[in-house]
Amino acid sequence: MATILVRNSLVLALHAMACVAGFIAGSSLPLQAERYSGLWRKVHDHAGPLAIAFVIGATMFSLTTQAFILGSGAATIAAEQGVSITTLLLCVTPHAFQSSSDSSYRWPRGRSRAGATSGITCLQPRS
Question: What pLDDT is stored for residue 105 in this prediction?
């Protein structure tokens, strides 16, 4: 749980910094461009759109990475439980809407996911 929280916090912090940088570049560089002429003016004129393009690229990279990590984790858990990914997602979706304090989807302490029985009835290991 802590790994997920740290990873997601890092992703959100990096995205927030990229958005702030894009905003600063998009709003202040055109104002600064008025003070310059020639090459420096062109650099300042085009830096704002390039910063926004960077923010879009960073966001797409972040979303793609998160989707890959979540998909890989879902595939691993589905294989360990002997169910299809669709069945896994249908079974855990209701638990995603529960608060963490009353979630019944917990692995017993000291046991790996492969050896644990889950609290979700549709994911009980096959006999």
Answer: 47
pLDDT tens-digit series, residues 34-83: 788 888 888 877 877 887 888 888 888 888 888 898 889 889 988 988 88
Quote the tokens at residue 61.
């990279």
SS3 of residue 119 by DSSP:
coil
pLDDT at 100: 54
C-alpha 105/C-alpha 118 separation (Å) is 6
Q: How far apart are CA 45 and CA 34, in angstroms?
A: 9
Q: Please state, in angstroms and rounded to a whole number, the distance separating the CA atoms of residues 48 and 9.
A: 27
- Give the per-residue pLDDT at 48: 78
The radius of gyration of the chain's CA atoms, rounded to the nearest angstrom, is: 23
| Token representation of residue 47 | 């830096």
- Copy the structure tokens of residue 118: 């889950």
Instruction: Sketch the domain layout of the chain as residue ranges.
Output: 2-123
Of the candidates 41, 22, 19, which has an alpha carbon nearest to the alpha carbon of residue 31? 41
User: Which two tokens mark 69?
Assistant: 């990590």
The residue count of the chain comes to 127
